[in-house]
Amino acid sequence: MSIQPSLFDLPPAPRRTTPQGFAYQPDLIGPAEERDLVRRFEGLDFKPYEHLGYLGNRRVASFGWRRDDSGQMIETGEPIPDFLCPLLDKVAAFTGLARESFRHALVTEYPPGAGIGWHRDRPPAVAIAGVSLVSPCSFRLRRKAGDTWDRATIEAQPRSAYLMSGPARSDWQHSIPPVEALRYSVTFRTMRAPRPSY
């Protein structure tokens, strides 16, 4: 009698699907626009990424909103800089969302070997759009589905953009494995309006 498992005894393979609410656009901007953005990043006041006392292996510059020491998103009073506005216009056109609805911009610098672990952006972020610059990355998504995972991987090329909204933002986690070369990203988030206090 063979002890080798039959095909019917093997665990199910992960299902691969594109999340509802996820969109991808190659070549959102041209090479000259990319070079201009990267040149302007040199003047930003980058800080090490920190969240709840954890220091990440990347640097960030945040505008409009930021996370406070407790992890909550708060308005900074520092507006999205003018040099990012043409990019924001293209992101708004790609997503179909109103330009004014994007209340947060984050420029992230990934040195070689830097990545992001599995996570899900929390409220008040509603929709998240990102633009990948300089070098590619594997943008991975996963969602628990019973005993296995639904998974998707998008190879985000330089100058491309993605959108996570609806279930893609609320139900799926995402991560980026360590990058092989210097990479920048610009992430724009729409924010749910704060409840009025009386």
UniProtKB/TrEMBL annotation:
Region (Disordered): 1-23
GO terms of biological process kind: demethylation
Residue span(s) of domain Fe2OG dioxygenase: 101-192
Protein name from the UniProt record: Alpha-ketoglutarate-dependent dioxygenase AlkB
Xref: Pfam families: 2OG-FeII_Oxy_2
Signal peptide segment: none
Coiled coil stretches, renumbered: none
InterPro entries registered for this protein in UniProt: AlkB-like, AlkB-like_sf, ALKBH4, Oxoglu/Fe-dep_dioxygenase_dom
GO molecular function, one term: demethylase activity
Keywords annotated in UniProt: Dioxygenase, Oxidoreductase
Stored Gene3D superfamilies: Alpha-ketoglutarate-dependent dioxygenase AlkB-like
Species assigned in the record: Caulobacter zeae
